[in-house]
Amino acid sequence: MKAKNNSVGLKLNGKRTALIGFAFFGILLLWQVYDSWCPTFLTDIFARRMFGLSSAGLKASDPSKILQVQWIVGIIMACDNLAALILLPIFGSLSDKTKSPIGKRMPYILTGTFVAAVAFPFIPLFFHKNNIAAMVVMMAIVLMFMMMYRNPAVALMPDITPKPLRAKANGIINIMGYLGGAFATVLGIFLKLSDYINSGDEARNVWTIEIPFIVASLLMIISAMVLFFTIKENKLAEELKDEMEEGEKLAAIETPVDDDKPMSKANKRMLLAILAAEFLWFMADNAIGTYIGNYVIYHLQSSSSKTMILTILGGVASVIGFATAGSIADKIGRKWTISSGLTVTVLAYIVMCFAKPTGVVTGANGEFSFPVLLFVVWAIKGFGMALVHNCSFPMVVELCSSKKIGKFTGYYYTASMSAQTVTPILLGLVFKATGAWGALPIYACILTILSCTMFTTLVKNIKAEKVANAKGLEALDND
Looking only at Cα atoms, what is the longest distance across the chain? Predict the structure, then answer.
């Protein structure tokens, strides 16, 4: 008879995991503001300079002029990602080797947060002053220091969470992150970027674009302080030593991990397959995230507040996905959970191809009514990609020991940031060649199909052994 699984003590502490999630809260808060505002800042400033237009002239100009500058916008967005591509693995490996009284991740989290938070509000200020060089420098500083923050912040969860519990823990972490993004989204509904962009030069109110960046900076600092005062890395590492060792024995991998030996061929094949598929789905997802603001303003000719509503709908659907992904993975395995998420996302992009500008004027600035179909698309996509993101990172760090979590987190972000470096430029060139905003969902759909095919055919489905999870008040005890 099979021996009973001895996994005593492997219970997910929900309170502690949520507190760790404050790190991701700050990351997605900044990212939401950055991705929602900065591509439009770049589009506006480059189009006006290249074609010698005022803001009013830009609004009334041939829409093809807007498409002609998207490749430049893509290059600027990609340059920041290129720096991140270099820095993420460096900070991951450095934090693995760091020993300090406040832990190995916390020094990088605190330094990165402070510098990024100080620099962030200067981006809209320099845009308002029409100083593109200073604006791009501030964007680079923010992203470089966020990379110092991001890798160690993400690595903090697997540092103190046993391997079989990481999918569910990652769900909680991502929900906390989406709450951070929600703050930025709500601000974007009331402080409409499209109102600022469509106003004449003299009528532009800097506070319309400045307030979201200031609020994001303040909340980033608060979230880092909450993390610092509630999560004591060194103390937890010692207290959870036995649980982490037990988790190693129950890992969902083909061959056991041994730091004293080279990585096994089976584990290496699995790692490369996951990272390759991840590269493709991030190319698709980042293309949508980077250009959806411009897509709504310039293609659908609708209010930027609709982009924020899309984000809220996608966020709510993502929270549902993150809340259920761990349980789904327990039943069918992480591989099929990710494959299902990618399939659902492909369906969403296919539907998006049929969302067209309505041509019905509804806004005071001549804005058109928004196609309701896109709301459905964003909900479906949000749920699908939540399943993907929730299970993919745990699969990568499953393949290493606790001594190399930062390094393997760097691998994960190397794949994602490589994609985010390539895709804005590539899609910008596609826009320039086709002259059609409709290329956006087609581009994302093709890449997601390729990703799903690669992942499904090359990655093995190895289910982790089932372990207990804290329920209700039990999850709130013993930090």
Answer: 81
Q: Per residue in 333-364, pLDDT tens?
A: 889 999 999 999 999 999 998 877 665 555 55
Domain total in the chain = 1
CA distance 378 to 310: 6
CB 348 within 8 Å of CB 310? no
Query: What's phi and psi for 2, nearest 5 deg?
Result: -70, 135
Asked whether residue 235 is domain-assigned, the answer is yes
Output the domain CATH number for residue 71: 1.20.1250.20
Domain assignment present for 256: yes
End-to-end CA distance of the chain: 37
How remote is the C-alpha of 397 from its chain's centroid?
17
In tens, the pLDDT along 288-310 reads 888 887 788 777 877 767 777 88
CA distance 352 to 346: 10
- The answer as to whether 474 is a domain residue is no
Q: Give 137's contacts (C-beta < 8 A, 6+ positions apart).
A: none
Domain with 195 in it: 14-465
The residue type at 267: N
